[in-house]
Amino acid sequence: HGGRIWAEEAPGGGTRLVFELPEAPPAPDGAAGARMPAEGSPGGEAGGEGEEGARILVVDDERYVRRYLDYELGRAGYRVRLSPDGMDALRRAREDPPDLIILDMFLPVLSGRDVLLLLASDPRTSAIPVLVISVAPREESLGLPGVALALQKPVDGARLLEAVAEILEKARARKPAR
For the residues of 22-60, what is the DSSP string, one character each? Predict the structure, then answer.
């Protein structure tokens, strides 16, 4: 969440644990306090037409992970859709192909690996780049079809946005000019 934690040697012996948390942006009504967007808006949408405006489908079975990614990506101006499982993700990707899919490998109903294979076999979704964010070692995902980059959880916001920008830039460079 953009904070830091570290240990320091305390004067006179021992160890002191120190942490920093970023200041949360004010809620829209001006009230102070941390705010993360709630899920449940139509289609699970969040974010606006900010700097990138790219459409990203976030697929993770952990609600708090979805909310965190939605928050970080939305703040950066990406249009985010949320999906709790592989079957729902496939349906959403086929109906309205996103510019990028962020995918967990451990999902209910249909695994991340199966989602990747099905995306790659469908002409409507085969060109969509995928950023894997999972507890699985990165190496397990990198050779799978469609995987542009793999990161291991937990991922901080800066690294997330860096990876997303890198993948979208490469995808843009591959698209033929209209």
Answer: PPPPPPTTS--S---PPS-SGGG-B--S-SS--EEEEE-
